[in-house]
């Protein structure tokens, strides 16, 4: 895999963090839970609030070589769409860093899928757009 492909792959896997996933092993065992983290060297993963059949576990670690599939059970956050929306309100002041999942507005306000960081009146405008975008995405999904 090229460096660019590897970076994109890891970026996609990063987007699964704190999301509900279904992991199927090469033996056919299915685990459902929240992806808490992963090891980039061997792609072992840690799941929280796991359901395996009728049993529930607080935490489960699955070795990377045992994983056949990791399936995202919820719609991913469209950070690019939010970036486009912000660019309409703040032309030439929005930068979208896809590789790290961050939008900056005027190089002072940081926006991620988890929220908005900053202060002042511009922060309030960005936060309002973010909240509206979240509400629209939730009603669509």
Notable traits:
TATA-Binding Protein, five-stranded antiparallel beta sheet, SH3 type barrels, 141 residues, alpha+beta, 3 helices, four-stranded antiparallel beta sheet, 2 domains
Can you describe this structure?
By secondary structure, this protein is α+β, with helices and mostly antiparallel strands. It has two domains: 3-72, SH3 type barrels (Roll); 79-140, Like-Sm ribonucleoprotein, C-terminal domain (TATA-Binding Protein, 2-Layer Sandwich). Helix content is 31%, strand content 37%. The protein is built from three helices and nine strands. The chain has helices at residues 3-15, 79-89, 121-140; strands spanning 20-25, 30-38, 45-52, 55-62, 67-72, 94-97, 102-105, 109-112, 115-117. It has a five-stranded antiparallel sheet with strand order 4-3-2-1-5, with no helix packed on it. Strands 6-7-8-9 form a four-stranded antiparallel sheet, with helices on one face.
